[in-house]
């Protein structure tokens, strides 16, 4: 639980710093709300991530099949889903209050909840792909390494695994960040009526965040 909590705290802090700064509200501080939502999301994600292992240990499920499922197969999709969840929670003010949309010249034409929703969903998906793949692919690679007996000393498996994870993460970072452009595009017809009446542009742009 502690390691999951530390991991999600770091990624949530990164999300908070690199989101879209448009949302404003008079009755409360958007940043305070994001911090509270982030703490709740981090706690929930850490519990979900630690639950399978805790369940296995609690009921002494030591079969080889259960070990493979809990230790090898579940962590990657769980980490991807919880990472996407924390992004959606901490950046929820962006689709609740909207973010700025601009024309090709950078002129702000309005604040759109539809654009905010699109920005958050794209970022959550890219984060899920980043961490899901980073923890799934090394397990596959290490399986072939062990099967081919490329590492003779069992003590060397841990540093080799760490090297593989870091290599996959380094490769996946640019892939994740380039899945969707930093300056996102949204069709005019997808926006709210008040924005449609204020511009004739067919495509508008917004800052997606990271």
Automatic annotation (TrEMBL):
The chain crosses the membrane at residues 35-56, 68-90, 124-145, 157-180. One of its GO terms (biological process) is mitochondrial transmembrane transport. Belongs to the sideroflexin family. One of its GO terms (molecular function) is monoatomic ion transmembrane transporter activity. This is SFXN4 protein. PANTHER family: SIDEROFLEXIN, SIDEROFLEXIN-4. Pfam families: SFXNs (PF03820). Keywords: Amino-acid transport, Membrane, Mitochondrion, Transmembrane, Transmembrane helix, Transport. It comes from Menura novaehollandiae (superb lyrebird). The gene is Sfxn4. It is a multi-pass membrane protein. Its main location: mitochondrion. One of its GO terms (cellular component) is mitochondrial inner membrane. It is found in: Mitochondrion membrane.
